[in-house]
Amino acid sequence: MHQPACFVDPTKPDHVCLLKKSMYGLKQSPRAWYQRFAQFATKIGFTQSKCDPSLFILRHGSGFAYLLLYVDDIILTASTPSLIRSIISSLKSEFPMSDLGFLHYFLGIAVRRDKNGLFMDQRNYAADILHRANMTNCKPCRTPVDTAAKLEAAIGEPVADPTLYRSLAGALQYLTFTRPDIAYAVQQICLYMHDPREPHFSALKRILRYLKGTISQGLHITPSKTTTLTAYIDADWGGCQNTRRSTSGYCVYLGDNLISWSSKRQPTVSCSSAEAEYRGVANVVAETIWVRNLLLEIHCPIQTATIVYCDNVSAVYLSTNPIQHQRTKHVEMDIHFVRERVALGQAGGHACYHTRCPNGAGMIQVRQDLAPGLPLANKYIDIDIAILKDKSNGNWWLYVAGKQVGFWPSSRFKVSSGTMVEWGGAVYSPPSSPSPMMGTGRFPQGNPHLDSYIRLISIIDGDYKEDKKVNNIYSYSDSNHGYKVRDATKTWWSHTGHIILYGGPGGI
């Protein structure tokens, strides 16, 4: 660093000037500007978000306003036009600024309004990436990644221009802001930026060919009456060919809108698929906690528990059963906070897998309840005892406190994967208005006997014919008694480590 021209003291050539204000280009300048702006925003009534320091929130009577700052670019929205004008006027009185009108372009993201909501895309940025790679006229590809191929380090010849590879990979990372469909593919090629090889460059070019055919795609944010938070997670156990570390990915929906997603290689090697999935669950629960807190700050609290869908039953048990599991004693303590959130009723989960619906509606996704306490409340639905009666003709009957409340004909009984039992039928209250239902349950660990209890049983209300998905979930649990099952030793089947409901004819 040197003194500027005309300020050099000939007697002190090695000295520098002491600045009283930040100058553009100094490493302290962004921080100094942020503190200057935050100070003024607080002065005019804004409060700084604890979840996102770049977000400022103003509550003015019954109105509200939100201001998002990125360096010297600002997005401002408010409940009334007059409040927006008032805030802009206050900002102009302190900082030289230009009002660009309605949001249409921000940090390379185009925003388009229509009657159905907002559409965000980066087609111009994608076109620029294709131009930089000299692939503007390339042949489109229907998928961004070849799932049958696995990339490895030090395989193939080094690329001729590693800088170009790194530049394109970094640009594709920015593109994932509105293109979650390429998140996994981009994550894979970014693993090899330190030593890119020809197979890696071929994978990168495949992403570019996919972008060529889908350049106009983006995110459509629509108004939604649903305010639930739902997450989906999956993990590829030991997918990395060099480190054998797993890759996990998740997506989070607020109502019908996708608001957060990620694809990332896990930091440690998992000893089982259950551990890999459990780490993935921990990642997405951490993300949903941040989303819930952010929504709370902007006065849009989520009143129900966050539902997390996972396709690994063992990860489900790890999340909901706070006991020492023999094969997972080595798992780091930090990811066990998932159990705490489930116990508090702030998160619930479901094991997801595909099966054929008993009533012939085709392939649907069946969701098994994981956690009691839904919707979010500090209450349990207290049931003294429920006896699941198995009639000799193979039909299933559900009794609560001695009163029959459900019936499942044997024709709708289904066993999935040899470990979980599923059945469809009707729970009627009153009997004149039945609705399609499903029930699941399981024994605690250990050998079943006459006094075995079901620790968790759920009844899922859904209409398979109309929307092919479950709508509402009602969980019933009695931690002291559970659900007593008669003749357990004769009519139920056990699996090593986990005792699962398995149906068969018998008396009561």
From TrEMBL:
PROSITE patterns: NEPROSIN_PEP_CD (PS52045). InterPro entries: DNA/RNA_pol_sf, Neprosin, RVT_2. Pfam families: Neprosin, RVT_2. Residues 268-508 form the Neprosin PEP catalytic domain. This is Neprosin PEP catalytic domain-containing protein. It comes from Microthlaspi erraticum.
